[in-house]
Specification:
143 residues, single chain, Rossmann fold, globular
Length: 143
């Protein structure tokens, strides 16, 4: 029985994200599981990057992303369902943060979207492949 589902969205391809979120919500509903929705921001605080941004850029990015994530969940699932969702915005490398949040939340299932792979993805590995490879729980990939 699944008790907690983590849905990882990137908010750059809303059509794919919509399918991922709908699937995650459906899977969570089957067992009455908690649904957590995650978006990972790049680490703007890295020393070589931070010089290009305003001082409070990262905090502003977290706030804006949190609002976008919440709004997206309301649009896709409705306000009633959204009220029960935990919205998480993390900072760092996408696959590492997805795995860390899943571990912290005690997720039994991670739902993630797969994008059409580029040649570089075969050499470096896309985030979905890395999550699958390193996850301690089941991973459901939405195409």
């Amino acid at each position: 029985m699944i008790k907690s589902v983590l849905c990882a969205l990137d908010l750059s391809d809303l059509a794919t994200d919509k399918k991922v979120l709908q699937q995650a919500a459906r899977l969570a509903s089957l067992d009455g599981a908690q649904l957590d929705v995650l978006n990972v921001l790049p680490d703007f605080g890295e020393s070589w990057v931070s010089g290009f941004f305003e001082r409070h850029h990262h905090e502003k990015a977290i706030e804006e992303t949190s609002e976008r994530l919440n709004k997206f969940c309301v649009e896709v699932l409705g306000p009633e369902r959204n009220a029960d969702i935990r919205h998480v915005v993390a900072t760092g490398t996408a696959y590492q943060e997805i795995l860390a949040v899943a571990k912290t939340a005690g997720s039994d299932l991670i739902v993630i979207g797969a994008h059409t792979p580029d040649l570089k993805d075969y050499l470096l590995g896309p985030n979905a492949a890395r999550v699958i490879r390193h996850s301690d729980c089941s991973v459901f990939v939405v195409r």
